[in-house]
Amino acid sequence: MENIFIQLGCEIFFAAAFGIIAKVLRQPLIIAYILTGFILGPSLFGIAQNSEVINLFSTIGIAFLLFIVGMELNKEKLTDLGRNTIIIGLIQMVVTAFLGYILSLFLGFENTPSVYIGIILAFSSTVIVVNLLTEKKSISTVYGKMVVGILVLQDIVALLVLMFLSGLKGGDGLSILTFGEIILKGALAAGIVYLISHYIIARVFKYLAHSPELLFLASIAWCFAIAGLSVLLGFSIEMGAFLAGMSLANLPYAEDITLRLSPLRDFFLILFFITLGMRVDWSGVSGYVTPLIFLVIFVILIKSLITLITMGSLGYTRRTSFYTAVSLSQVSEFSLIIAGIGLSLGHFDSSIVSLIILVTIITILTSSYLITFLGNIYNVLQKQLGLFEKNGVVEKKQNVLKLKDHVIMFGYHRLGRQILNTLEKISKKIIIVDINPDVIEDLRCKGRKCIYGDAYNLELIEQLNISKAKMIVITFGGLKSNLFLIKKARDINKKIKIITTADHIHEALSLYDAGADYVIVPHYISGEHVSYILKSINSKKKSLEKVKRYHISSLKSVLKT
């Protein structure tokens, strides 16, 4: 017992240490955890052995992951999947899986491993991509919504694949008879879970909702109970956990349960990725250098090209198609789970798993950099990308009037809404640029001139007629995008006034050096404003009640804009 505790302690310590390094270097944390397993595992130092206890913890992590994924697949999320999202997602998965299968056969793999590899390459990483889009504040853009929709669809298909695999037993072939048996057993399991959930669990959870601790405990109990039932029916623990999550998806307490379970899921998933790192067998990978190179190139280039062609043929602009395609150019964490199940079923050996892990690591790292510098890459390739764009059917190109002495405001949400009222007193000719299509629609309904786009779009900069503008106001943070806009604006119009925004004081100084006329630092200005209010109250020039009434009036006026 003491040895297991020491081993677990070492894994957690090194995972935390490598995680901190990864955070500082802005690398995906999943890489740090896999690296921990590789370094501590038998392939290198052998400090940690792949014991049954560690395997148990990693299995619990996957179960919690699928349980939470199941809870997030509620009716609203499924109905939000638009027709084009489903078409693009399905075409991308089917074509990628088929071409991946053909490529694997060409590289010398046998039929069953080739089927696995083809399927594995078809899925992209929800965890990595959503985190990157959130950091870039692009989750609500046209391409952001498309990417998230496709990822949700991929998760559903991946779970169906897991259901099929979990119904297999070691040594079973992938036959039609086996597939039919699994479908029947799956339908039986889903039916039993639905009936229990609809007639019993919903009422029980309604009663337990009065006690958050009991609701939390009952959720875990339900997950383990259905996972156990799944095993009795011949499926895997993971499949049962997913069914348990789906049965709770439409309860009003699902979001609260998800939030409470997330830390447990994250902890056990870390152990899962560490365990995967232990399974990397470098002695077997040495013979797979050529396949590794080909598979990485396939995921980054060919997989992206499939999405690019599909979206272009449906009428999306080259920019949206390219951004979406690049955002999906990696292998999913679900793929690692599928590879682990394939290994446990004896469909291939550990060298294939090692190959898949390395492909996953390399593609996640590469795509992370590509997503970070999407705007710069697009500006270099935008003329060549015109081959994939036809006359807009889904997205119509926008034409901005040839204005003179106008004001251009980049970003409307939050800070922009407050600034707009004052800008309208300065100039009646204001163009608002925002990357959120919902914001654009709302502004158009209110009769304001606006255009969809972001800071890195050179086509947009040309349309805005910056050479004749008198002022640019940038209301969002982000040093790179602000520096890019300042440079482009100064190159086009030396006299234009530029007001921009910085998240930190040192960034503000860099923006001043780059040519900004004034830099807004929101938290610094907020602090100054609060200090002024406190001084006014202390000197009895204003009462707190008067300040409160004025603030409420200001907030209401902003809401009306």
SSE map:
Blueprint: H1 2-24, H2 29-40, H3 52-72, H4 75-79, H5 83-106, H6 111-122, H7 126-135, H8 142-166, H9 176-208, H10 212-232, H11 237-247, H12 254-278, H13 282-285, H14 289-313, H15 318-327, H16 333-344, H17 350-372, H18 374-385, E1 407-410, H19 415-426, E2 430-434, H20 437-445, E3 450-452, H21 458-463, E4 471-474, H22 479-492, E5 497-501, H23 505-514, E6 518-520, H24 522-538, H25 544-560
Parallel strand pairs: 1-2, 1-4, 2-3, 4-5, 5-6
Helix content: over 70%
Domain unit count: 2
Number of helical segments?
25
Question: Strand share of the residues?
Answer: under 5%
Order of strands across the main sheet = 3-2-1-4-5-6
Shape, principal axes of CA atoms:
globular
Number of β-strand runs: 6
- Uncertain segments are none
**Ends apart, CA distance between termini:** 65 Å
SS-based class: mainly alpha
CATH architecture of the largest domain: Up-down Bundle
CATH topology of the largest domain: Na+/H+ antiporter like fold
CATH class of the largest domain: Mainly Alpha
| Major sheet size, sense and barrel closure | 6 strands, parallel
What's the pLDDT, averaged over the residues?
A: 80
CA-atom Rg in angstroms = 27 Å
